[in-house]
Amino acid sequence: MSDLLTALLTAFALAIAIEGALYALFPDAMKRFMLQVLEQPDNLLRTAGLTAAIVGVAFVWLIRG
Questions:
Q1: Which of 34, 57, 62, 65 has the fewest C-beta atoms under 10 angstroms from its C-beta?
Q2: Torsion angles phi and psi, residue 2, rounded to 5
């Protein structure tokens, strides 16, 4: 497997592990957060998601560069 694919799969697994830990440690807070997200307009969620993706890629680029 290539180094890029290994890094991508590792990052994906780490994201799943972190999200799972948040649900296990703070279930009530996660439920409240989901309710707040459902009330947000789609364009705000798109903007937040795109911003998070760009910041994430930038961090990976800086770390691995």
A1: 65
A2: -75, 160
Residue 30 · residue 38 · CB < 8 Å: no
Which residues have CB under 8 Å from 23's CB, separation 6+?
30
Beta strands, E only, the chain: none
Residues in the chain: 65
Report domain extents, the chain. Answer: 3-64
Q: pLDDT tens across 4-35, in order?
A: 888 889 989 999 999 999 999 999 999 999 99
C-alpha span between 19 and 14 (Å, rounded): 9
pTM of the model: 0.70
